[in-house]
Structures are given as structure tokens and as C-alpha cells.
Amino acid sequence: EVQLVESGGGLVKPGGSLRLSCATSGLAFRYYTMNWVRQAPGKGLEWVSSISDSGHHIYYADSVKGRFTISRDNANNSLYLQMNSLRAEDTAVYYCAREIGGSSSDYWGQGTLVTVSS
Amino acid sequence: DIQMTQSPSSLSASVGDRVTITCRASQNINNYLNWYQQKPGKAPKLLISAASTLQSGVPSRFSGSGSGTDFTLTISSLQPEDFATYYCQQTYSTLRTFGHGTKVEIK
């Protein structure tokens, strides 16, 4: 059975940091690009970041570049998102997702809520 | 960045109706276009990849078409379980972008 389970969300003050984790099983993690996608309350989906299977190719949305860092541990089938200098506009549910064929995301986690507020 | 413009932003339809949602890219993306369905409180579900490839297990009433900059998602006969929000996504660029979504509501 395929599972992606995000954790690490919570309430943080503006300027603070959080580290999200995505623990996976059953999806051959080491062979696939992984993505983080977020959704602000009542809003649409926003792609945040991608990391290639090897970890050598990393991309970020302009809105988080320089503040967020994506990483992965293929030995432990886990994906991470280090979020620094958090802003109110980073408040969202954060999803991890597997990307297949270099293009579409077929498996998604259930999401973890990050709330940035004083 | 490549901008994705979806229309309409919302629509009301009845069970059995044919529904069409369009997505326009700000530049040529060949067929690097996906469609997702999302229901409240749930993660998105991949419906169609590469503009027209139906994912396994997705009902055949869903279809996708288009190439270049203009794309369409069609639901041939709307069913009660299809009321949801639909998003297009381009993956031509390494900076992936989504459309703003189309909410399909019950008339």
C-alpha cells in the first residue's frame, strides 16, 4: 500500500522556522522526483518546490526561494521542507506528492497545516 | 513563470450535463498539462496527464484535449461524485504552476 504522511506543521510566529517531513512507503521513493504543494485556506493549489530522484536538481517557486529548502533521504524514504523566515502568507496546508514521468503527481499525502501568526 | 488561466472560475450544472473547463497557458507548453480533481478537505487526485491520458481508475466520462497553449477538460455526463474543484497544472517548466481552479457546483 502506498502511503505518504506529512508531519511537522503547527503554529509559528512570523519570522520563525518549521521543518516539514513526508514519510513514504510503497512508492519506490528513491526513483522519483518529489514535490511540495501548498494550499492557503480557501485558496487554490500552489506548487512550492521539487527535488529530483538523486537530489541533484532542486527548484523553488519565487515566493519561497531563499527561505525554504527541500531535501530528501532516500535511505529512509523521506522528504523534507525546511521553512525559514516564515510569513503570514505561508499559512497553508502543505502536501507532498510523487511525480511520475517527469510531469504529473500521482500520489499525494493528506497534508499538514502550517499557520503563521503572532 | 508560465501563467495558467482557467475558465470559468465556477459553474453550476445538473447531473447528466456535459461540462467543459478550459485552461490557457501563457506560452507553448506542448502537452505538459495535467488535470486534478479536489474535494473539500482532501488531497488532489490526478485525473489526466499529458493533456489527454486518462489515469487508471478514472471514469471514461472524463476526457482531456489540447496542445500548445489551449486545453480542455470535459465531463461528458456529470455525476453526483463529480462536484468538486478542478485544477490544471503545467509541467513544461521546471517551475510548475497551477491554474486557479474551477469549482463545479450543483445547480
What does this structure look like?
The complex is a heterodimer of chains A (118) and B (107). By secondary structure, chain A is mostly beta strands. In chain A, 0% of the residues lie in helices and 54% in strands. Chain A is built from no helices and eleven strands. In chain A, a hairpin with a 3-residue loop joins strand 9 and strand 10. Chain B has no helices and eleven strands. In chain B, strands 2, 4, 5, 6, 9, 10 and 11 form a seven-stranded mixed beta sheet that branches. A four-stranded antiparallel beta sheet of chain B has the order 1-3-8-7, with no helix packed on it. Chain B is mainly beta and 107 residues long. Chain B is globular. Chain A binds chain B through residues 35, 37, 44-47, 50, 57, 59, 61-62, 95, 97, 99-106, 108-111, and chain B through 1, 32, 34, 36, 38, 43-46, 49-50, 55, 85, 87, 89, 91, 94-101.
Describe the protein's topology.
The complex is a heterodimer of chains A (118) and B (107).
Chain A: E1 3-7, E2 10-12, E3 18-25, E4 33-39, E5 45-51, E6 58-60, E7 68-73, E8 78-83, E9 92-100, E10 104-108, E11 112-116
Parallel strand pairs in A: 2-11
Antiparallel strand pairs in A: 1-3, 3-8, 4-5, 4-9, 5-6, 7-8, 9-10, 9-11
Chain B: E1 4-7, E2 10-13, E3 19-25, E4 33-38, E5 45-49, E6 53-54, E7 62-67, E8 70-75, E9 85-90, E10 97-98, E11 102-106
Parallel strand pairs in B: 2-11
Antiparallel strand pairs in B: 1-3, 3-8, 4-5, 4-9, 5-6, 7-8, 9-10, 9-11
